[in-house]
Design brief:
The chain is mainly α. Helix content is about 80%, strand content about 0%. The chain has 2 domains: about 1-195, MFS general substrate transporter like domains (Growth Hormone, Chain: A); about 210-405, Up-down Bundle (Growth Hormone, Chain: A), CATH 1.20.1250. It has helices at about 15-45, 55-75, 80-105, 105-125, 125-130, 140-145, 150-165, 175-190, 205, 210-215, 220-250, 255-270, 270-280, 285-305, 310-335, 340-370, 375-395, 400-405.
């Protein structure tokens, strides 16, 4: 059963959605910058280039570890204050990264990148802030419109890194990290203009509602978590391995790999323009299943050829599949809990989804070396199929929510 959700926003839904989409574009640009230059920065600091990916892995782990505390702070301090705090963390972290890049200190750079994972954990909550601040009929569209800001970040982040990397001659990318701190300041200003729905801030109020063991027996809670975790982890598993497979396994150029990843990122966020409407028409479970089917199709394309066209088609399908699967799963979850349960449900969801994503990211390169590109795609087909079956089972019969209301 669908629960009536969170308190009413004190501002216009369109205003809040627009501001959160802008904040998503800004903070997403910071993440795109890091994905573009962090490994390159680290490579200039170490003799053994195998360590160049360590800072990015630490950033992903930092995001996973910060998801629970981020949800708790947002619901304890209020959405606007909590989200602004998340953006503020990026300022000193980016400044430390700039100093480390200037000095060439690898360990300090790793520390800075781990800290830069935390702002991403807060930014991942923008979609819940939007969903909880609009009427139920607008939730899925609010989530998709906010994530549409990722299209801007997919282009803006790499362009900023390209244009700022040599501002300080002899200290490549130092200025880029300073720009990241500036972007975080702008994001704080944008977030401060929002008027989001109030949270249940009293500790006693947040303890009300169902306990986690009871919530996790509710299929309307755990099925969306599983579908979101599957969508995100499979996207990361294949995406991280794909450029390595293109260049080192299939003999394509790094330019071919960069082109494929660029359009993959665009395909991750561009469908957000219509995803909300698709959810409204077909329902969130069906939309999530379509997303997982697209991920399954991406893996099937990879199993049928290794040309650049195969990789391009596969990565576009992978991006669209992530978009439908992740947004629809979030929409399903956003109507499955009561306001007093929001902090614990959202916190657990983020820990599950981004914890599994971090494992997939770190494991991707290892799996490529140990079991190969084809086996990775076979694994993706198995996991996607299992998640689709879980969605189908979750749609049958009454959920535990119906029994408890």
């Amino acid at each position: 059963m669908m629960h009536g959700r969170a308190g009413t926003s004190t501002g216009s839904p369109v205003r809040n959605i627009g501001l959160l989409a802008v904040a998503q574009a800004i903070m997403g640009s910071n993440q795109a910058i890091l994905m573009s230059i962090a490994s390159l920065t680290a490579a200039g600091m170490v003799a053994d280039k195998a360590f160049a990916t360590v800072p990015v892995s630490l950033m992903i782990i930092g995001t996973a570890l910060a998801t629970g505390p981020a949800a708790w702070l947002i619901h304890s301090w209020g959405r606007r204050n909590g989200l602004a705090l998340g953006a503020a963390i990026a300022i000193p972290a980016a400044l430390v990264a700039a100093f480390a890049a200037w000095m060439g200190w690898f360990v300090l750079f790793c520390v800075a990148l781990a800290a830069l994972g935390a702002p991403a954990a807060f930014a991942n909550q923008y979609r819940f802030a939007a969903a909880d601040s609009v009427p139920e009929g607008l939730k899925s569209r609010a989530i998709s419109w906010v994530l549409f800001g990722g299209v801007v970040s997919g282009f803006l982040g790499p362009q900023l890194s390209a244009h700022t990397k040599d501002w300080f001659p002899g200290h490549e990318f130092t200025a880029t990290y300073l720009v990241m701190a500036g972007l975080a300041i702008v994001a704080i200003g944008v977030l401060w203009l929002t008027r989001l729905a109030p949270t249940v801030q009293q500790a006693e109020g947040r303890k009300a509602g169902r306990s986690l063991p009871v919530l996790l027996r509710d299929r309307s809670i755990w099925v969306p978590m599983l579908a979101a975790a599957a969508s995100y982890s499979l996207m990361v598993l294949v995406m991280v391995a794909a450029p390595l497979a293109m260049v080192y396994v299939c003999g394509h150029t790094s330019e071919d790999a960069a082109f494929a990843i660029q359009w993959h990122i665009v395909s991750m966020f561009a469908p957000s323009f219509i995803t909300g409407a698709v959810i409204t028409r077909l329902g969130a479970p069906m939309t999530a299943a379509i997303g997982l089917l697209a991920i399954l199709a991406a893996a099937a394309v990879n199993l049928n050829g290794i040309s650049t066209l195969h990789f391009n088609i596969s990565l576009i399908l992978l991006g669209v599949g992530w978009n439908f699967g992740f947004i629809a799963s979030t929409a399903m979850l956003s109507i499955a809990y009561r306001p007093e349960e929001a902090a614990r449900v959202q916190g657990l969801n983020e820990q599950v989804v981004f914890g599994v994503m971090a494992v997939a990211s770190i494991a991707s390169g290892v799996l490529l070396q140990v079991v190969g590109w084809q086996t990775i795609n076979l694994l993706a087909i198995v996991v996607a199929t299992a998640a689709i079956l879980a969605l189908a089972w979750g749609s049958l019969g009454p959920s535990r929510s119906a029994e408890l209301t």
